[in-house]
Amino acid sequence: MRYVLQDAADRLGFEEVNLEDIDWHLLQPEHVIGLVAVLREDGYAPNTSSLYVNAVRGVMNEAWRMSLISQEHLLKMRSVKAMAGTRLSQGRNLRRTLIRELMDVCAADPRPQGLRDAAVIAILYGSGMRKSESVNLDLAQINFDERSLRVTGKGNKELIKYAPAWAFAKLEAWLAFRRAQLGEGQEDDAFLFNRIRRGSHITRERITKHAIYYIARQRGQQVGVKIMPHDFRRSFITRVIEEHDLSIAQKLAHHTNIQTTASYDVRDDNERRRAIDRFDL
Asked: Using one digit for the tens of pLDDT, what is the confidence trace for 176-209?
């Protein structure tokens, strides 16, 4: 969000001003209208336009709370709409065969990264959690008997997620290896996934979201597919829709709105073509 606000500020003519020094409360509706127009000209998607508008609205809400602007000013700023429309999802549906290939390339990696990356991918795909939730996972949040993971999701909501036995097997293999590397008398780390430096040195530091992105990209390249971390969540939801139904997928994804769950359905064009081909005479 900080990046979005900085880019918005640059487009509004504040290139030389620090983000914290901008008089955001002096912005007028026409400024935001102009920002939306520039984003449209630059080819930004409607969802991105909404992100920029919502970022500015958030700052104006805070300005009103601090009595820097009137309620009338706030309402005028809120009345500005982002560009209308939607774009097709760029997400990928990762088939079971591809997940097996990812597990194979991780198993073939003799470094500690092989076990760790397999566990990361297994938990992301097996539970459908977000990458931010996975990096914040602690050992105390895991129930190995019930195969459940207690995470803090969007909106600071505590959620229970479940993962299949094979995913927990990958996680336990990584944790056992990590404990063996610590040496006698050393306490285990409180978190699940460690940062690993060059030379296969397991640090006592928690993995970052950027590292999750790197793992998905690197392992995807090894199997010849471009993978983003969120593709694991998309694929989890798509598979639940395929094998069960939309309402079960909504519960497992912890979406408030079932339409949000439906938007995650990324079954490929071949399946849609087969569905249409069945409508023969």
From this structure: 999 999 877 789 999 999 999 988 999 999 999 8
The mean pLDDT of the chain is: 91
With b for 16 or more beta-carbon neighbours within 10 A and e for fewer, the 29-53 pattern comes to eebbeebbeebeeeebbbebbbbbb
Residue 218 in this model has a pLDDT that exceeds 70: yes
* Residue 26: CA count within 13 A, CB half-sphere: 6
3-class DSSP string for 52-111? HHHHHHHHHHHHHHCCCCCHHHHHHHHCCCCCCCCCCCCCCCCCHHHHHHHHHHHHCCCC
Tell me the domains of the chain and their CATH numbers: 2-78 (no CATH), 96-270 (1.10.443.10)
Q: How many CA atoms lie within 13 A of 258 on its CB side?
A: 6
**What does the buried/exposed string (b/e) look like for 137-167 if buried means 16 or more CB atoms within 10 Å of the residue's CB?**
beeebbeeeebbbebeeeeeeeeebebeeeb
pTM for this prediction = 0.75
**Each residue of 59-93: b (16+ CB within 10 Å) or e?**
bbeebbeeeebeeebbebbeebebbeeeeeeebbb
Q: Are 213 and 228 in contact, with CB atoms under 8 Å apart?
A: yes
